[in-house]
Structures
1.
Amino acid sequence: MITPDIHAERILVLDFGSEYTQLIARKVRTAGVYCEVHPFDMEEGALRDFNPKGIILSCDPGAAPLVADPQPVAAAYQLDVPLLSIGYEHARLPARVQKIPDYDNTSSPGLIQQFVLQDCGCTGLWTPANIIEDAIASVRAQVGERQVLLGLSGGVDSSVVAALLHRAIGNQLTCVFVDHGLLRLHEGDQVMRMFADNMGVKVIRVDAEQRFLERLKGVSDPEEKRKIIGRTFIEVFDEEAAKLEGIDFLAQGTIYPDIIESVAIKHGKARVIKSHHNVGGLPEDMKFELVEPLKELFKDEVRKLGVELGLPEAMVYRHPFPGPGLGVRILGEINKEYADLLRQADHIFIEELRNWVDESTGKNWYDLTSQAFAVFVPVKSVGVVNDERRYAWVVSLRAVETIDFMTARWAHLPYGLIEKVSTRIITEIENISRVVYDVSSKPPATIEWE
Ligand code: XMP
């Protein structure tokens, strides 16, 4: 079977600073059509070369327009392709532009889908199966017979890269999995079981818990902890890479929002700048060529690809987990005792979220929340268990609902669920005497406690 050129049909989304731009682009993709997001003042030549089948102008009606004049998009008007404006100041637009007042209106009969499929005449080539075939072909063309190294974190993105590269180049792929001792319960074993045992991927597991804990001893400042974890991670990864011979490529799980954000930051147009980076950030002096097979994909597309590649849904749809792991969920100084207690409490919370089904939606509370975890609070509190006084630690449960993780609402979990989790944690974990629930939304609070 010949794989169609999945980029042949393309929609251009011009971003005028709307917070909905990525949601619009995702709707285009969900309709089965490739699209790219570019700043509203995209260079004219680049705009023509992009050769779109249609153009969407994305502007936030509530915000002052970033440009007083629609000239920067004059080139777009000149192209003989359908144009759709969402939220743009309509009075200024030529009559032939279709106009939708704001993003909320796009859901009524599926307006974006209608625009790309009917008005622009796209046929829907952008499907998970086609994307996989295309990615496999381009990885093979890039890598040839040579060797690729991948830092496998167990997170969704690097896991999907591993599965994809394994399918494309088999044992030319070597993964390094660094266990920094701040992972969730049994996480390291699960990663090894799935990739090494079941899929036959070459994975080198590095047990670096002691080194990380040693470096973190006595450090309580959150940013300092992040830096130490990041630096030590790179050091360990670097050492392992140096032991391998004949590696020319380094694979990374960069996804499309990372690229959109870095372009926006470069142009000074990002609405919100994330200050943190993944622990996997690698030094610039590494002499590898990069392989980034997910760099055109949104997170939901990465997940669909993962399922199509045979990864378990429970793994692919897992909540995000920060690179520094439990390091930012143990407040202040980190030690193994705290990490072990937190791992157990977190495990109970996640288990009960998965077990507790909401009757109105039929979904469990793990799937109904965007991120949920336990936080270790290094404060001792008095409790009574089996008539015995207990003076032990406190954990907080945190669960949020969000679309983009930039803002979030604390999840209104059923009281019965919170009660069950609390009872289990206090009775099953000897050194925890109290459980609290975090009812802070973002902003002003952040999702993580540190
Ligand atoms: P905050 O706490 O900033 O979190 O509201 C937003 C999202 O980012 C994740 N997060 C991190 N991810 N390294 C990461 O890879 C980090 O240092 C880091 N800090 C926060 C957090 O889990 C949430 O999904």
2.
Amino acid sequence: MILVTGAAGQIGSELVGELRARFGSENVVAGKHRTPLPEAMELAGPSALVDVTNRQELDTTIKNYGIKTVFHMSSILSALAEQNVETAHEVNINGVFNLFQISLENDVEQLIIPSSIAAFGPDTPKTNTPNDTIQKPNTVYGISKVFTELMGNYYQQKFDLDVRGIRLPGVISWETEPTAGTTDYAVAMFYGAIRSNQYECYLKPDTRLPMMYMPDAIKAILDISKADYLSLNHHCDFNVHAMSFTPSELANCIKDINPSFQISYKIDPLRQSIADSWPDSLDDKAARMEWGWKPAFDMRSLVNDMYKNLESKLT
Ligand code: AKB
């Protein structure tokens, strides 16, 4: 039995659908918290209230459903975490700790917990960032992701708990909008282009960040989950790379489809400083060698597919 926390979120909402298609709707519990689940998801299979900061609730859900695998998708993202340090600490650090403990106590067999490019910081080599390198993030979100990686590796080594994770870049998708991240501009730009032919970007035009299209993010999460345990040297800290671009490059690519699209810039100092502390591209040799990671989408194919799907969703 599988539990997905954060099932109403950007990644969780698509992951639940994919897992239910593969393993049967009745075998995948959609874990919800504040945001209600989409009606179709609620109707299609089991769901439960899961607030990871509430150990009792987490324990009850895992026991009641006999959960053996958890995909932990709920997290307070970078920009919101900077504005709500307490909540970020509660959810991203205490919540993750609860999950490790409760999983151990209930014989959960596998825990997938994504990390992020935020686990790097201003002292990390910025281009082609190695998998194993300096990790001194200067954001609370980044610190919580380093905590998650290190604790995950600790539980794996000390208790043989099968914890796995990848460092996700900005994820671009058309089904559910991301909230409160720094890379969200890349999704919002498509909404702006389709709705009003314009978008005001909060990052500078030349801010280069790693990005990935949702089908590749889902594939990475599922592929790491089914990778042969014995072939893994890393566990909770895999770089995965698909593409890197700047707001101005993305705008130009969107203009190829919609020539009326106009971009303007009004910089948000908070999100700009977060973006400036992150890598612009990643070396993902470890993921490619240890479990065969390979993305399918590059920037052009992402933009074409995203524009087409979002346009038909919005019109
Ligand atoms: C964010 O912008 O906070 C996230 C991330 C890169 O982890 N999308």
